[in-house]
Amino acid sequence: MVKRNKWVAGNWKMNLDYSSALELTNNLVANLPGLNGTSVTLCVPAVYLDALKSIVNKNGLIQLAAQNCHSEDKGAFTGEISAAMLKSMDINQVVLGHSERREYFNESNKFLSEKVFKVLSHGLTPIFCCGEPLSVREENKQNEFVTNQLEESIFHLSAEEVAKVVFAYEPIWAIGTGRTASAEQAQEMHAVIRHFFEQKYGAAVAEKLIILYGGSVNASNAATLFSMPDVDGGLVGGASLQANDFLQIISAAANS
Ligand code: PGA
To answer: pTM of the prediction?
Structure first.
C-alpha cells in the first residue's frame, strides 16, 4: 500500500482584513508544529497573496493558494484573475469548484473542466472541490452526484495530469454548519472517489491521489477524520481563521 503524506489547507474565504491576515500568517509561521511530511496551504483572498508570500517564505513550510481563477489567460473579464497571473507571482496552487463558487457564481462542471485544464497547463496544482447538497444526500444519491461532477470536470485529463490534482470532498450540508460528516461517511465517499479514478486511470494513479475532506473540520474532530484510510487531510474553513485551532488541526494531520 502506498503511503500518502497528509495535507491541510485553510480556506479563509472572504474573511479577515489586511492587518488580521498578516497577523494570522505570522502567528502560523512562528508556531508551526513538526510537519512530518504534511503539506500546509493557506487559500487566501487574492489581494493578500503577494504580502503573505514574503511571510511564508521566511521558513518555506506553508504554501499559498488562490481561491479561484478564470479559464482564460487574459482579456476582457473584469474582476477575474488568471492562472497565468498566479504563475507569474510564483503562486502554485488554486482552489477550483468550491461549492460557493458553483452555487453563487453558477460555475458549471463544464466551465470547471476548462479551468482545471488551464491551471494544469501552467504547472499549478488545482485543489478541486466536489460534494453533494443535502437534498441529494437525503435521497442517498451522493455517489452518483459526486462521480458525475468528477467525470464532467476531470475525466478529459490524462493520467499524468490527474495525478497532479488534489481533490477535496466537501458535502455542502457540512460546510459552515457545524454538522460534520461522520468519519465513516467521509471514508465511504473518499473510497468511492478513489475507486472511480481507479476504474478510469488504474490503481497506480488512484492510490496516490490526495483526497481531502472539508466541512466543519475543527480541532476536536480532525484526528478522527484524518485516521480514516482514504482521508488524506482537510480543507478547513472557519477553524482556519483562528491560529490555535488551525495549528491543532495541522498537528492532528502530522501525527496521524
Ligand atoms: P468550513 O468550510 O470548515 O467552515 O465548514 C469548509 C470549506 O468550505 O472549505
So the answer is: 0.97
**Å from CA of 223 to ligand 1 middle:** 17
Domains and CATH numbers, the chain: 7-254 (3.20.20.70)
* Rounded-to-integer distance, Cα 119 and Cα 99, Å: 18
Pocket test for ligand 1, best of 7, 175, 248 (most atoms within 8 A of CB): 175
Q: How far apart are CA 88 and CA 84, in angstroms?
A: 6
Q: How far is the CA of 75 from the centre of ligand 1 (A)?
A: 31
Nearest-CA residue for atom 7 of ligand 1? 237
CB of 103 closer than 6 A to ligand 1? Answer: no
233-236 and 125-130: which strand pairing?
Answer: unpaired
- What ligand 1 atom has the least distance to the C-alpha of 168? 9
| Distance from C-alpha of 192 to C-alpha of 33, rounded to nearest angstrom | 32
State which H helix or E strand residue 204 sits in. helix 203-206
Residue 89 C-alpha cell reads as 507571482
Does 236 contact ligand 1 (Cβ within 6 A)? yes
> 209-219: b or e for each residue (b if 16 or more CB lie within 10 Å)?
bbbbbbbbbbb
Residue whose CA lies nearest to ligand 1 atom number 1: 237
Q: What is the pLDDT of residues 198-225, one digit of tens each?
A: 999 999 999 999 999 999 999 999 999 9
User: pLDDT digit string (tens) for 90-102?
Assistant: 999 999 999 999 9
Maximal CA-CA distance, the chain = 49
What are the Cα distances from residue 160, in Å, to 127, 156, 171? 16, 12, 27
Tens-digit pLDDT profile for residues 104-117: 999 999 999 999 99
